[in-house]
Design brief:
YojJ-like (1; 7-stranded mixed β-sheet; 9 helices; elongated; alpha+beta; 2 domains
Length: 260
């Protein structure tokens, strides 16, 4: 009998069993250390009793268990409502976090791609990534775009001779909010005399806000990043990627904690 049962098992059945096992394991991880674990234990006992009753043809017990199966779903929903809500919130949070992570990764990738291209061509650029402090004043003073951030669009904006190449681009979220934006110049007397207007503007904005400001030098093509009133020079593709990922992930984590 056992050999016949095994011979009827297909690859699809095995995959089905593995998926169900993974589903139950994930559910158990989400609700561990909660009252819902006790409910799962009761449910497991009832399932075992149901199999035993069917195997030994215990009709009275079968009749009782069938009645219990009809009211159990409603009873579980009422008794373990807080736990179910927690599970749903956890799934929703992880799903949203996954979406945000993908968007953030794509945004940084597009910015890096554009920055490296502009650096190789020695095309001056000033890209601002807004964080927690609003840049509405600077956005409104520039030319509104509200366009999805892409390397091609950034390269086009900063290409010499185009009407939009002067000033800074401000990115809010994952969109280019505005271009041709004028930023405040730093008045710090300790700044290197050799630094040009773009670098001084980047430092100036970083002194007033928590924004990340990328600067590409028109003279040398070198890449710099300004934040918290400081500026880091001579970044390569890898270094800029690491810094943007680090500081943007800190902001995303802080925003996630505020929404919880």
């Amino acid at each position: 009998m056992f050999s016949k049962l095994l011979s009827s098992v297909t690859i699809t059945d095995i995959i089905d069993i593995i998926l169900v096992a993974c589903l139950f394991y994930g559910l158990f991880i989400l609700i561990k250390s909660t009252r819902a674990v006790q409910g799962l234990k009761v449910l497991g006992v009832l399932i075992i009793c149901s199999f035993i009753a069917q195997f030994f043809q215990l009709h009275t017990i079968n009749w009782i268990l069938k009645g219990l199966w009809m009211i159990l779903p409603l009873a579980f929903l009422i008794l373990f409502q807080p736990e179910f809500r927690r599970v749903i919130d956890e799934i929703d949070k992880n799903y949203l976090w996954g979406i945000l992570f993908k968007q953030e990764k794509r945004l940084i990738s597009e910015i890096i791609k554009a920055t490296v291209f502009l650096s190789k061509k020695k095309i001056g650029a000033l890209v601002v990534l807004q964080q927690n402090i609003s840049l509405k004043h600077y956005v409104d003073a520039g030319i509104r775009l509200d366009a999805e951030t892409s390397a091609e669009l950034l390269n086009t904006i900063f290409f010499p001779g185009t009407p939009l190449h002067d000033g800074a681009v401000i990115i809010q979220g994952d969109k280019i909010a505005s271009c041709c934006c004028v930023l405040p110049l730093s008045q710090n007397p300790d700044i290197e005399v050799s630094l040009g207007t773009r670098h001084r503007a980047a430092i100036g904005l970083s002194e007033e806000t928590d924004s990340l400001i990328i600067v590409v030098s028109e003279e040398t093509g070198s890449i710099s990043l300004a934040l918290n009133g400081k500026i880091v020079h001579g970044l390569d593709e890898e270094g800029l990627t690491e810094m943007l990922t680090l500081y943007r992930s800190k902001e995303a984590a802080a925003a996630s904690e505020e929404t919880q």
